[in-house]
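Student: Send me a single protein entry containing the residue sequence and its fold in token form, directly below this note:

Tutor:
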Amino acid sequence: MKIVVPFPAGMGSDEPARLIAKLLADRVPGANVVVVNKPGASTIIGAQEVTAAAPDGLSLLYTTVATHTQNPYLHANLPYDADKGFTPLVQTIKTGTILIASRHAPFKTLKEMIAYGKANPGKISIGSYGAGSTGHLNALLLMEQSGVKMEPVPYKGSAESTRALIAGEIQLSFEGSTGAFPLVERGMVTALGVAFPERIQALPNVPTMTEQGIRGIDVAGWHGIFGPGGMEPSLAQSISDMLSAVVRSPPFLQLVSRVGGTPSGVVGEDFKRIVQADSRHWAAVIKKSNIRLE
């Protein structure tokens, strides 16, 4: 079995995918489960490989919310069908996007940031891990809801945006909880708010954006595993059940806690409904923002 990860080795979704591969191999004697990194083009390269594979359960995609709920509305010529081209198997982790500030920034809370931003319009730069990414879209929503004019700065990946934030080249960034949590824990950045329906266990003292009066930035991000479209229902169910057991196992739950995520394990049709609901949300946000990527 091959698990394709459309991100570079060592990035946020790579570690959980590799642990899942190991745990699957441990459960099935003689099984060979490998992780193949296919980064680039906002997850499109890796997604293409899996959607073109035979629906035999031997090629799976470990990806994030972008592949199925944002890319279809950002790219005019997307080379895959986000709905019919994949079989949703399991949601592995729920993640909150966290608004983090540089230690060099002249504010330490969201309230202070809004006051500073209104007094200094256009002087706050807010980075993201790519044009059209969840971080970029949340930045646009934050500007709209707070009334603060900022300068969006999209980077080519979270590694670049994180480096710029730590260096003080930008003042703010929305990062996924799995990437932001270690930085906050080590005191390298300051967490201003969580874009999640409720406070996350890893950062219980950081209030949500909604608690602080910023609405509409509370849709949970997630990691999930998909097979190619057209899988036999019985095969999809069998693989979903096996994956759900793995992501609910103690070793995986320990990893989720360590990286600041929230456990899931939702499978099949229930996971499909989550994908569809998130797709409707991001379609509306992207349409309103008038963002289109080539």
Summary: The radius of gyration is 19 Å.
